[in-house]
Amino acid sequence: MQVTIRKAEQLKALPDEANLGFGSIFTDHMFNIDYNPKEGWHNPRIEPYATISMDPATMVLHYGQGVFEGLKAYNTDTGNIQLFRPQENFKRLNSSCRRLCIPEIDEAFMLEALKQLLQLEKRWVPQAPDTSLYIRPTVIAMDPFLGVRASDTYRLYIILSPVGAYYAEGFNPIKIWVSADHVRAVRGGVGATKTVGNYAASLYAGQQAHEKGYAQVMWLDAIERRFVEEVGSMNIFFVIDNELITPELSGSILPGITRHSVIQLAKQWDLRITERKISIEEVIDAQQGGKLQEVFGSGTAAVISPVGEIGFADKLFTIADGKVGPMAQKFFDALTDIQYGKVEDTMNWIVSI
Ligand code: COI
Prior knowledge:
This protein is α+β, with helices and mostly antiparallel strands and about 350 residues long. Helix content is about 25%, strand content about 30%.
């Protein structure tokens, strides 16, 4: 399949890199490809960034049959544009597609198409420290139909957004709140996929957290309401008594690519790393006993995000005196050094465009 390219007649002015924020600025072009049962995925094209016109009955709007991914392009000191483990994102996109009854895509083709889009949009990859070009591949069900079934037609698109830190706090520790009343996902459901409904389901408790002054919700498992799952926008790690612990992938947790990278680095550094169930009681007991050394999140958007305070059962528990811990710092430095091409990529994670 050949990607056709139609360039924008007028290019937008580039934003101020000091104030990018997250996810509100979009580049000049996007990638589109359509699916129907007769032609399969067809008509791949790079076009000017534009609104999508759709029938009010379009299925994704009614039944949430949509999935997405998030990855980033980084500008190195030498002006190279590089991606971090993009093959993993397209693999996970396909795994989300399978769960949502969406036809799979050709992963290798998608990576090539993304590279072509990035070649065209190179000037949008910001250079300021800790900025990047966030890449959002998205697949949506396009049939105009109100019966509940899988759609026959789909649109896959990729949009690009120059971004700074995901959290207003930047790399400073954030406050997270454990929701006792709501759950994000349940085993057997779709929690392990990047489907749109997971994020809709998180909004209500997320708003409660914001009202209480917290940045995010830390979700517990849906059955026993005891075991820590994830933070919605990131996976979570605890350092207790020099052991690095992250909840095991239970089927309701997103298998984060940054999470996997942290685990691989930890193994390489001979750290004690365990993927297992960890209850909120264990976390609080460790904090009370002075054994909870650090908590941090991992994600594409969030990178490594230290947690300074946990709110649970109307009490506030402080971690590492509310400061950035050495382990969070070490993972942040190691990952960003690889992503921004400051060190040799011995893990074979980087793909240059
Ligand atoms: C990402 O980290 O790329 C995500 O998709 C999380 C999203 C909530 C910003």
